[in-house]
Amino acid sequence: MCRRTTAAAAVATVLALPAVGAVPAHAGPPDGDRHSLSARAGLCHYFATCVVNANNVYYRDAPNGRALGQVHRGQEFYVRGGQAGTPWFRGDIVGGRADVWIHGDYLEDHL
Asked: How many CB atoms are closer than 10 A to CB 101?
């Protein structure tokens, strides 16, 4: 029983770590375009699950595009990329709509 508990703890620890090769959002594209304050602070990474940090945050069909709905504090968002020169992140709402955009000021690292 002790081995199972230890193995489960090890798996949980590995799953909590960011993916190998994950690119911090503050690193941005190679040309060094600017990102939002939260992105520059490195609070969210590309190819990682982030969390919405406020209530009533719109997710959109494109950066500054049409609002498709709202998410709230604690909602997980899998970031798949962004748009160079903007603070917008493209990804999937965990358990919800895929391929949407959320402004980087409303995302932070999954704790």
From this structure: 20
Structure-derived torsion over alpha carbons of residues 70, 42, 95, 56, reported in degrees to the nearest 10: -10
Quote the tokens at residue 19.
Answer: 């993916």
pTM of the predicted model, to two decimals? 0.63
For 49-77, what is each residue's pLDDT tens digit?
Answer: 999 999 999 999 999 999 999 999 999 99
- Residue whose C-alpha is closest to residue 58's, from 70, 73, 76: 70
The candidate with the shortest Cα–Cα distance to 39, out of 52, 24, 51, 50, is: 24
Distance CA(62)–CA(80), nearest Å, equals 14
Question: Tokens 């508990």 sit at which residue?
Answer: 5
